[in-house]
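User: Show me a protein chain along with its predicted structure.
Assistant: Here is one chain, sequence first, then structure tokens.
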Amino acid sequence: MGRILVMENLSLDGVMQAPGRPDEDTRDGFEQGGWFQQYNDEVLGRFLGRSMGSASGALLLGRRTYEDFFGFWPKQTDGNPFTAALDAATKYVASTTLTEPLPWQNSVLLHGDVAAAVAELKRDTDLTVFGSGELVRTLAAAGLVDEYLLLVVPRLLGQGRRLFEGGARAALQLTECVPTTTGVLITRYRVT
């Protein structure tokens, strides 16, 4: 049986919207995009490098995150190890609007009910979800998430789309917590 790991960048008040760039996701008038970048440091870089290096399985992405990643990562030519890892990974994409063939190598479009399709995948495959808030909420509601890896920054954004909207409920057990030099808490929670 595979496992599903959800990996998210979050503000202290739970916002996950547009951590990477100012123009990443401006839905609902969100103007604070790129809020995560100033919190990068060597501790976080080592942790993420180790995590990417030991990752098994495939990626599971919602349409918006897939399109954003595809618009950025394959164009990185600076030798960044994340580019090669993301290009090589199988990427399962949950979308009702995309059609095949998908443009990024090793990408597979999920068909039908997303929770049922992911439950079938999970039988044999470990899956890691980045971003993809709507997808994560669907998976959590279906009881499919096994673990959360949350990078929590010491910042209150006050507005924006949050990961745990709509009354999400789950009992979690903290299994790892690593502070960085910039105040980010790298936390890993297992769903119990």
